[in-house]
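tool=predict chain=A
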Amino acid sequence: MNPRESITRQIHGRLEREPRINLHRYPIAIHNADGVATLEGEVGDIAAKKLALELAASVASVRGIVDRLRVAPGERRGDGAIRDSLARMLLEQPEFRNCRLRKHTNERDEVLREGNHDPVGDIEIAVAEGVVTLEGHVISLPHRLFAGVLAWWTPGRRDVVNALEVRPAYEERDDDVTEALALVLEADPALDASQVRPRCEKWVVTLEGSIPTAQQKHRAELDAWYLSGVDRVINKLQVTS
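tool=predict ok
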């Protein structure tokens, strides 16, 4: 077996052993050249996407990863509908009330709202083939992470590229990630945020508390996975019903 085939086989084996990836329902094409592996296909949820990329990167001979994985949307929608839905969510959230918001359509920018005298940032929304891209800047890591989760929540999206910068830059702390997740859980209409105690250490999120249903437990875990940069989620939530 040549080195290229060996790498592909090792990656496939690791993906096959992870039950949350489910290669039988969601096949992933694996290509590699010179130690750079490309993963392409559609996966069931954000956890499967992140785990697949992490497992592929864990193979000793892999020097880099090209991510062409997309997450199966709950419903198929056009790019314009996705863009408009996300714009409405950002406009409605109090955390972005003082943020300048723009959307990119047909090679032009449309201003949805101007920031006031003390803006919290400048966000541009673009969507292409179901992939949402956020560009611009915000004033804190929680703002950046929360905006990315709203993009993941948008019906019809297949992937999210969160290219927002934090200005002015500062040293990111675990507390910032925990604060962002608290905002997300509070905004999630399917959850009671008071039932979940999130914490973060080195981009690994742990969820503790008691929650009524297994569906809500899964929902809270996905909310944590949606945070850009989170590498692992440990779900210790207890189901009470």
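The first strand starts at residue 28 and ends at 33. The chain is about 35% helix and 30% strand.
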